[in-house]
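Table 4 source record.
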Amino acid sequence: MTVRRALLGLLLLAVAVIGWGYWTAISDPVVRRAEIALPGLESGLRLVLISDIHSAEPDMPAERLERIVAQINSEAARVGPLAIGGLDDDFIHRSDLTATLAKLRRLEGARLLLSHSPDPFADLPADIPLMLAGHTHCGQLRFPLVGAFTYESRYGARFGCGRIDEGGKTLIVSAGLGTSVLPLRLGAVPDLWLIELRSAQARPPRR
């Protein structure tokens, strides 16, 4: 009886963890906020960062995607004078940072780099002060004490999630909306970022 009770307890625990993970995966994203001074920007503007939608997965039905789009539209504002570069997935060697930077530097405006993976941030020069990325899902499955099994990054947890400020540059890594492999999330809720950009010459607003 003791063995049966133990097995039943483990089974119930597994069901509870899977249920919680799936509920987290299909929940609406939390809105995280960041305020960043961007050199070359004359006036403030607002951006919304979303990533890793994975619209074909079971945790991203059309109804949920429509609801998230409505949530984003309620947060978004105008687009300002930005020079934006884009990188494909560096994790599977499909990005060309050198070529992208060369094209970006020919453009006028405050510079911003969009990258699927956060890994290129380690090689980002000082004249590109801001990079926005996704890919990691913030680990997707993060357990107490153990942490995430993987961030799908060469740098592990260093660029795994959230806002990272290094060397006068800023990286924001979104947990994204969808999932990979398993439609589960533990300790890594879906998120989107509302980013307030302001001129580097302007004083930050008083709180």
